[in-house]
Amino acid sequence: MRIACPFCGPRGVDEFAYLGDATVKRPNADAPDALPAFVEYVYLRDNPAGLHRELWQHALGCQSWLVVTRNVRTHVIDQVEAARDVAAARSSEAE
Asked: Which helix (H) or strand (E) holds 17?
């Protein structure tokens, strides 16, 4: 599998480190339901078939964090975005 780093170009997957699901959001620790929300956040994950957004780091390259949209059935990569751009878009949606 090759990942097209937006900064370095296409590279082999061996240059990258996988972190996990890029769609999970940390719960509010001050919320009244914080304990069950954190249990779900830490221990429960969906196992989707098809497109999935994942967090990767270009560990042996530019060190950038990336959000990779990948089909987990075929390993075909649909999209690669800089994680900072995804986070900025998410925070502008929240405002």
From this structure: strand 17-21
